[in-house]
Amino acid sequence: MAIPSENDPSSPMNRREQTFPHLNEEMSARLVKYGVEEVVPAGTMLFRRGERRVDYFFVIEGSIEVYDTAEDGTPNIFVVHGPNQFTGEVDLFSERKIMVNGRTGMETRLVRMNPTSFRKLVSGEPDIGEIIMRAFILRRVGLIQSGQGGVILAGSAHAADTVRLRSFLIRNGYPYRLLDTDIDEDARHLLDGFGLDPGECPVVIMPDRRVLRCPTNGELADDLGISIELDKDHVHDVVVVGAGPAGLAAAVYAASEGLDTLVIEALAPGGQAGTSSKIENYLGFPTGISGQALSGRAQVQAMKFGAHMAIARTVESVDCGRHPYRLSLDDGSVASARAIVIATGARYRKLEHVDYERFEGQGIHYAATAMEAQLCAGEEVAVVGGGNSAGQAAMFLARTVAHVHILVRGGGLAATMSDYLVQRIQQSPRITLHTHCQIDHLDGDTYLREVGWACQVDGKQVRKKIGALFVMIGAEPNTAWLQGCLDLDKKGFVLTGRDADGYATPSPYATTLRGVFAVGDVRSGSVKRVASGVGEGSVVVQAIHRFLNPAPL
User: Fold this and answer.
1) Is 473 left (phi over 0), alpha (psi -120 to 50) or beta?
2) Which secondary structure element, helix H or strand E, spans residue 264, and what is its range?
3) 469-471 and 203-205 strand pairing
4) Rounded mean pLDDT of 387-411?
5) What is d(CA 181, CA 473) in angstroms, rounded to the nearest whole number?
6) pLDDT tens across 123-169, in order?
7) How far apart are CA 513 and CA 123, in angstroms?
8) Which of 1, 246, 265, 430 has its CA 20 to 30 A from that of 495?
9) d(CA 385, CA 38)
10) Which residues contact 147 (CB under 8 A, 6 or more apart)?
11) Alpha helices in 330-417 (DSSP H)
12) 274 secondary structure, DSSP code
């Protein structure tokens, strides 16, 4: 991953005054009241990589050096904060392990704030808080673009586990550098230096030179400190299960209104929407926004208000026979809640084909992001599905691939896709729509190499040299973990708006289990749109308040 150039308009390097701002004297005078002033000798360590809940520092006189460690163990200083500048990036809002070190460059007079005081500053001084938030987000973008503070991922770029780990790092906003062992001589030399065999790949090499051999997402999250530790005895006001648009909206509004909020997410913030290359019909973004950018901002927003995020944790079951409810997670931990918001969404269905699982992750994809586009650049690809996600994927891929084939079982796209996408697809010379067609052939060696489809109307059978198949069809709800605790419809989506006796509930998002609500794609009858999910997630908080604090009779 190259350091962005000075000519890249998206680079934080071109927004240096916003990335590393200097507060004016009036703002500085207000800020210092929230912390404790100290005079610190030169070379004093203020924070170390791997620590959680570190303090926030504001420089009055002197300097603070921020650095990671080079491969030979020497400090690599990449930021020096001077007078009227401050330390930190988005991890200061979370309980994640930080990725960098900080020390004083000379004798320094500074203001130290613990996490509680820092949150009071951000909420109590909105103009200063806005400057800090913007700087933190840009600093994380800079770390991602440069790979500073991150890890090395070594493996075949097309291998399923490399794709999985790379996607996990990208979607969780964690810096990394990819070394493709298929083509990169540096990767081979690096493996030799660690005494590794290419057959052990992919591997993740940590800054302290430890090697993780093909870790699971949960193992990687634990080692990187993305995951947080849960207190089994602590009872949260509300636990939100799922961090798609609906779940993140519920977290933002619940936390901002003073509720003790925990979000549990199996993979990364954003859900299906987080994999969208561009969302153009979401209110307030006339030029569009990627699903990852939208979900990343929402995550930071929720953490700013105090929501806790348990990432790479899956809820396996809920004990609904007791209150507070107890949720059991895949790592053996337990979370207790007075109220639950089910926002686990839905996942794309799989094609029924004998060789389908053989090529999952090795040619078959469920998202079209920059990573997938890079993997299939210059080749022909196929997209299966007629919804907005499929249309957005086709338009995004058409910029870099040789040609995009869209396959739908119906007679067209108008009934299932927004008109603006239909019009663009029709006008693109690099996209061909195949109606009344279904995949009937997959072939390859280690990776997918050939895709075929049959068309009902003309009986045509097609075989194409295609190494990337994007499947975006239908949706199956993520509700297996509920295990009979509440009523589902015939397809497994959560029924809402009626209690266990069939009477209407005060909230349209209430389930048949008191204090448990469902929002977004997982809810039966919901509109599968980002905006509707965000709306449901924000509105449900009112019902949670009513449940937690019932009006006296």
Assistant:
1) beta
2) strand 261-265
3) unpaired
4) 96
5) 33
6) 999 999 999 999 999 999 999 999 899 999 999 999 999 999 999 99
7) 35
8) 265
9) 60
10) 1, 3, 175, 176, 177
11) 356-359, 370-375, 388-397
12) G
Whether 308 contacts 93, CB under 8 Å = no
Structure tokens at 349: 């269905």
pLDDT digits (tens, 9 = 90+) for 455-508: 998 888 999 999 999 999 988 999 999 989 999 999 999 999 999 999 999 999
Residue 89 is encoded by which pair of tokens?
A: 């990036």
Going by their DSSP bridges, the two strands 325-329 and 334-342 should be labelled as antiparallel
Residue 41's identity, in one-letter code, is P
CB 23 within 8 Å of CB 129:
no
pLDDT in tens, 28-81: 999 999 999 999 999 999 999 999 999 999 999 999 999 998 777 789 999 999
- Give me the phi and psi of 14, to 5 degrees please: -90, -5
CA separation for the pair 272, 366 (Å, rounded): 9
Helix (H) or strand (E) holding 262: strand 261-265
Contact status, residue 108 vs residue 59, Cβ threshold 8 Å: yes
Q: Residue 187 is inside which H or E element, if any?
A: helix 185-193
In what helix (H) or strand (E) does residue 101 lie, and over which residues does it extend? strand 101-104
Spatial separation of the C-alpha atoms in residues 270 and 300, rounded to whole Å = 12
Burial of 9 (0-12, 13-18, 19+ CB in 10 A): exposed
Unique residue bearing structure tokens 């912390």: 35
Nearest residue to 388 via CA among 277, 237, 294: 277
Q: What whole-number distance in Å separates Cα of residue 64 and Cα of residue 59?
A: 8
